[in-house]
Structure formats: structure tokens, C-alpha cells
Specification:
By secondary structure, the chain is α/β, with parallel strands linked by helices. The protein folds into three domains: 166 residues, P-loop containing nucleotide triphosphate hydrolases (Rossmann fold, 3-Layer(aba) Sandwich); 84 residues, Helicase, Ruva Protein, domain 3, CATH 1.10.8; 115 residues, Orthogonal Bundle (Arc Repressor Mutant, subunit A), CATH 1.10.10. The strands form three sheets. The protein has a five-stranded parallel beta sheet, with helices on both faces. A three-stranded antiparallel beta sheet has the order 8-10-9. A two-stranded antiparallel ribbon has the order 6-7. Helix 4 packs across helix 6 and helix 13 packs across helix 14. The radius of gyration is 24 Å and the shape is globular.
Length: 405
């Protein structure tokens, strides 16, 4: 009888270091991002020297290297003994409220107090006292800052803290997919921001190809992957979004497929097969962590796409194009059924822009043959899978909320 787990425990014929193919892996040199890294360093240098510098906001689509560049800079900073600033890196998908962000700062720097269950006011006071005691500069890196539910309160608290302190200061470095996220902020919060902005462009096909070659050398055994397979993965990713995360996912999946089939090399066919699932996996990960109202808008689009638009002329082949107003009405109906308040049409339009930036939907301005001027919306992923993903997450959360109230 074959020993259990024997296949799992034997050495891989394909992979040398799987972690090197993860989007979270930071190589010694980040390709094609020298300019962006230099810009981050330039803005943060005064704060790292102990002066109260400018806030920084970094924008760009998913997979453009925003987080990698920031983490790369922070890793380098750790090795510089003369740095006078204290740093908190916070993933706002996990710490998605003002209280959780402040408690994470407390946990990073005053862990003895972090588990005492202090309220927001007490946590804020302890952080202020800690900064003032020796004129510290605290750099708070907020990755995916737009995930914070009470973002306006958080920004106001962190920026106005500088007025409450007699010495030292707080500097914010925010990372976000959506360049318009500041539209959500109240004028009182905006007025206290003194920020530099940095936009990351998508990678092109040649850049993605070089990035994949770099990671393939680290992640796969020698001569395991065909050069044409790397180029194909880069071309597919560049065509869709310039998303390095998608390209790496595709390459990793292709390696797993080759290994499952007992092959010694990763071929173009493996990449083609891997591409069918990699993009969807990333999309579903993204959908499952969207803010509630954006998820419900995507859910409305998925439901209407499945049911079919009431405007037959907008259905061509397998593609269904929806009127923006039709989607908004469906969103309002869904959220009313959950006994919650819908966002205004103005916020809805901003959310559609956000979703398009993240590559979940495409929008088109109506042309000839349609009365009036409106926006048409198309879902870019299989609607049934999107619907199921959202139903598993969102409605389970809603049931949990009901049980705990």
C-alpha cells in the first residue's frame, strides 16, 4: 500500500521556491519601479530624519507594485540605525476602522497596553503621550486605506493629532487603488492634509515579461519553464490590466498544473490552461473583500446580467450591456430588502468608477440608437460565480449581524 502523503512529501521537480512566485514576495531589486521608489524615499526622508514631513498618498490599479514598493522601502529603513521615526504598517482590510487602526499602532509600539480593552479616547491619549515623551515622528502606513469604514474620522483624528501635541508628529502614507477616494472625506479632514501624491502606471507586456523571468529564476528549477510560456503569461496579463499579481498567479498555477501531470517542463499549454482560472481567482478574492455597497452594486450587475437586460437591443451574443440607471434601481431594491439605507446616485457613480478601475466592470457611453445620453455597464467576469461569491460572504455577514444585535 502506498504511504499516505508520499506524493506531498517528495521533492518537487518543478518548484525551487514557491514563495518567490507570490505577490507578497519582495525581491532584492524591484524591476521598473526605481522612479516610484525614489519618490517615496524623497517624501518620507524628512520624517525619517525626525522632522514632521508631508503626508503621502499612493494610487494605482491592483498589481502595479504599490504595496511592494512601500514594503521594499520600509525593509531598507529597518537597517538604517540613524532613522528617528517609528513606523506602523497597517493592512486596512484587516484593520478596517479607526479604533482598529489606533489599536494596531498601540500594539506595534506599546504592546503592554494593547490588550487592556481601552476605548478610542484612551488609546489616542496613550499614543499622543508616547510620541511627546521624546519628540517622536510616527509614520502610519495605511495599505488599502479606502477599506476603512469610518475613514473620515480616522484621517481627521490622525491629522488633527499634530495640533494636540506639543512636540513630535504623525505622518500618513496611504495606499489606494482609487485616486478619487479623498472625495469621501469631509472638508475639515481635507483641510488638514498636506500631502504629496504618486500614481503607479500599469506594467506593459515587456515589463511583465522581465518581472516573470526574474521570479521564474527564483521560484522554478533551472530550465523548467519555456521562454515562450513566460512571454504568453506576460502578454495575457498586459492585455487585461497590466497586473503583475495576475501574471504571477498564472505562472504559479501553470507550474502546479505541470507538476500534477508529471511533466518536467512548463509549456505554453500549461499557461493557457492556468490563465482560465488565475484571473477569476483574483477577481473573486477582490469581490469578496469589497466594501458593502460596492459589493451590492456588483451583485446587482451580476443578477441583472443573469436575468437579462429589459432592453433587448443591448444584448449581443453572450454580452449583456446594462443601463446605469437600471443597475442603480436594482441596487436600491437589494439594499432595501436588507433593511439598510442606499447610497445616493452621486455615490453610486463614484463606486462604478472605482469598480472599473479595479477591472471588475467596463463602462461605455451610449451611442446612436439609444435615446438620451447614458452610461452602459458590462460585468467582466462570469455572473453566476460572482453572484455566488457575494452571497456566501455578504449575506452570511448580514445573518451574523442580525444574530448579534
Amino acid at each position: 500500500m502506498k504511504e499516505p502523503f508520499s506524493d506531498l512529501l517528495k521533492e518537487s521537480s518543478i518548484f525551487k521556491n514557491r514563495a518567490a512566485l507570490s505577490p507578497n514576495f519582495i525581491p532584492e531589486h524591484l524591476l521598473f519601479r526605481d522612479k516610484q521608489i525614489d519618490s517615496i524615499v524623497k517624501v518620507l526622508t524628512p520624517s525619517l530624519k525626525g522632522d514632521k514631513g508631508r503626508n503621502l498618498f499612493i494610487y494605482g490599479k491592483t498589481g502595479t507594485g504599490k504595496t511592494s514598493c512601500m514594503r521594499y522601502v520600509l525593509d531598507k529603513v529597518k537597517n538604517i540605525s540613524t532613522v528617528r521615526a517609528k513606523i506602523s504598517y497597517i493592512n486596512c482590510r484587516l484593520h478596517n476602522s479607526r479604533y482598529r487602526v489606533l489599536n494596531k499602532i498601540l500594539s506595534d509600539h506599546l504592546p503592554a497596553y494593547a490588550k487592556h480593552g481601552y476605548g478610542t479616547v484612551d488609546i489616542y491619549g496613550k499614543i499622543i503621550n508616547w510620541i511627546e515623551e521624546d519628540t517622536k515622528i510616527l509614520v502610519v502606513v495605511l495599505d488599502e486605506i479606502d477599506m476603512v469604514t469610518d475613514l473620515d474620522d480616522l484621517i481627521y483624528t490622525l491629522t488633527r493629532a499634530n495640533n494636540d501635541m506639543k512636540s513630535g508628529g504623525i505622518v500618513i502614507a496611504g495606499i489606494c487603488n482609487n485616486i478619487s477616494f479623498k472625495d469621501k472625506l469631509d472638508p475639515r479632514s481635507l483641510s488638514s492634509l498636506y500631502e504629496a501624491e504618486l500614481v503607479f502606471p500599469p506594467y506593459n507586456s515587456n515589463e511583465l515579461s522581465e518581472i516573470l523571468k526574474q521570479r521564474a529564476e527564483l521560484g522554478f528549477k533551472k530550465d523548467v519553464i519555456e521562454p515562450q510560456a513566460i512571454n504568453l503569461a506576460a502578454a495575457i496579463s498586459a492585455k487585461d490590466s497590466g497586473d503583475a499579481r495576475l501574471a504571477l498567479k498564472m505562472l504559479s498555477n501553470a507550474g502546479e498544473l505541470a507538476e500534477e501531470k508529471g511533466e518536467k517542463k512548463i509549456t505554453i499549454e500549461d499557461v493557457r490552461d492556468a490563465s482560465k482560472n488565475a484571473e477569476e481567482e483574483i477577481a473573486y478574492e477582490l469581490v469578496s473583500t469589497l466594501p458593502e455597497h460596492q459589493r451590492l452594486i456588483v451583485y446587482a450587475i451580476a443578477m441583472l446580467t443573469i436575468q437579462g437586460s429589459r432592453y433587448k437591443k443591448l444584448v449581443q451574443g453572450e454580452d449583456t450591456y446594462l443601463f446605469s440607471g437600471e443597475v442603480y434601481d436594482k441596487y436600491v431594491a437589494i439594499i432595501n430588502s436588507l433593511k439598510k439605507d442606499p447610497k445616493s446616485s452621486r455615490w453610486y457613480r463614484k463606486y462604478i468608477t472605482d469598480l472599473e478601475m479595479q477591472g471588475l466592470v467596463a463602462t461605455y457611453e451610449s451611442g446612436k440608437g439609444i435615446r438620451g445620453h447614458t452610461k452602459l455597464i458590462k460585468l467582466l467576469y462570469p455572473p453566476a460565480k460572482i453572484r455566488n461569491t457575494i452571497e456566501k460572504g455578504l449575506f452570511n455577514e448580514s445573518e451574523a449581524e442580525v444574530k448579534t444585535t
